Amino acid sequence: MIRKKDLRIIKTQKVIRDAFIDLLDKSGFEAITVQEIANAAMVNRSTFYLHYVDKYDLLQKTADQALANIIELVAPETHIVDGKLEYNSFKENIRVILKVVEDDAVLYKVLLNDPQMIEINQKFQQTLIRKMDGSFPGNILISRDLFLEWMTSLYMSVIRWWLNQNMKYSSNFIAEEFIKLLVIGPVKTVGF
To answer: What percent of the chain has pLDDT over 70?
Structure first.
């Protein structure tokens, strides 16, 4: 029988994670110490070390979970019906992904903008590429590698831009704009 994770463990990890994200936003990763994380979470260092090896382990686990939260929602294969893109389904999927980002905006903003997080960004993009790779027909009109790089870069850039604008537009609006950019293309979008 599989045992559920103890609620106390879940709560402790959550307060540590929340304190860590707050410190990441205020101080940057390199400036943070385990003691500062423990103090902000109102736990002692030994409690921190029961859950994480060090701050790098905490960062990795936090980033991996943030990545998993988005990747599990990316489902391009569900938007292609009889070889055609189902726009409303795709737009709704983008909106749901943006809602996940919005719910943890400080974390995603740090992960996608902090120059020290380049490896995390690369991992995010490579995971997106693997997820999307099998979803498109084999006979696309440009290099498959180039297409996947462009598509995943667009996903990440739109999310990054939205976060940097302090999410002043709704997730629905951004999803609609994203779809327009994809369907119409950048050249026609600017009127050429």
So the answer is: 97
Q: What does the pLDDT look like over 104-152, one tens digit per residue? A: 999 999 999 988 899 999 999 999 999 888 777 677 888 989 989 998 9
Q: What would the two tokens of residue 97 be?
A: 């992904």
Query: Count of alpha carbons within 13 Å of 130, Cβ hemisphere only?
Result: 7
pTM of the shown model? 0.87
Domain 7-52 adopts which CATH fold? Arc Repressor Mutant, subunit A (1.10.10)
SS3 state of residue 169 = coil
Please name the fold of domain 61-185. Tetracycline Repressor; domain 2 (1.10.357)
Q: Which residues contact 25 (CB under 8 A, 6 or more apart)?
A: 106, 109, 110
Beta carbons within 10 angstroms of residue 116's beta carbon: 12
Q: Which residue has the tokens 């490896």?
A: 119
The closest alpha carbon to 69, from 21, 103, 45, 24, belongs to 103
